[in-house]
């Protein structure tokens, strides 16, 4: 298997977190993806690749490209045969700038590239298909994204707010305090988040806390769940269980069992290798 992960060029770093590429002569795997604080643009030249909500039929089957927005429910992907996928992880505030569509209209959706980018995506797909070198493909993708993001911007306070909610220690009243420090109302902050990120600041904070929880559990599965809830400043373990179940359909204990079974790796705590693909 060939795996490449690289940083975007300087002009893209405001909007793009990472570029990635995966290929294999043969690959057979079924994954469950849990919510992360990123959107994703994906290109696919695999023999078979499908993706959709975990409990529903696939939305995408063997498409060459699609956009996956922030999601708050688990997704299932399946691939078999010759495999080649690549794409970009986009920062939380990148979606509206990339598409011109308010991000809240795209939340929990997996959309074909044509739906969002129209004929432009067909042109880049053709160029990518004709390019054999993996690094050259990522360079072409970078050029496409650079043109899409050219002269685009987001409010500086929104980036500051998103980073504060991702990195600050959670406490009651955190969002109200953040809005006050920015000299805007909580309602204005919510409107900006819905437009640029796709979810409210409160829901964004829920996803951050969930990601913190799975990262800690994947790296230390033997820890006490009660202590984990306390460390993350949940009121009690029941509140942690409720958040976990709402986003993954698993309890923290069930998630931990998958870590111990080797199906969830510490470096990718939001991806559960759920076995072989089922055609």
What are the key terms here?
279 residues; alpha+beta; Jelly Rolls; Arc Repressor Mutant, subunit A
Structural features, described:
- It holds the Pfam family DUF6597.
- With 279 residues, this protein is of the alpha+beta class.
- It has two domains: 2-149, Jelly Rolls (Sandwich), CATH 2.60.120; 156-273, Homeodomain-like (Arc Repressor Mutant, subunit A, Orthogonal Bundle), CATH 1.10.10.
- Helix content is 42%, strand content 23%.
- Strands 1, 2, 3, 4, 5, 6, 7, 8 and 9 form a nine-stranded antiparallel β-sheet that branches.
- A hairpin with a 6-residue loop joins strand 4 and strand 5.
- Helix 5 (156-167) packs antiparallel against helix 6 (174-182).
Q: What is the topological layout?
A:
Layout: E1 2-6, E2 16-33, E3 39-44, E4 48-53, E5 60-61, E6 65-68, E7 75-90, H1 95-99, E8 110-112, H2 113-117, H3 119-129, H4 134-149, H5 156-167, H6 174-182, H7 186-196, H8 201-219, H9 225-231, H10 237-248, H11 252-260, E9 271-273
Antiparallel strand pairs: 1-2, 2-7, 2-9, 3-6, 3-7, 4-5, 4-7, 6-8
Helix pairs in contact: 5-6
Pfam families: DUF6597, HTH_18
Protein name: AraC family transcriptional regulator
Domain HTH araC/xylS-type: 155-258
Task: Describe what is shown at a glance.
Keywords: DNA-binding, Transcription, Transcription regulation. This protein has helices spanning 95-99, 113-117, 119-129, 134-149, 156-167, 174-182, 186-196, 201-219, 225-231, 237-248, 252-260, and strands spanning 2-6, 16-33, 39-44, 48-53, 60-61, 65-68, 75-90, 110-112, 271-273. It has 279 residues and is of the alpha+beta class.
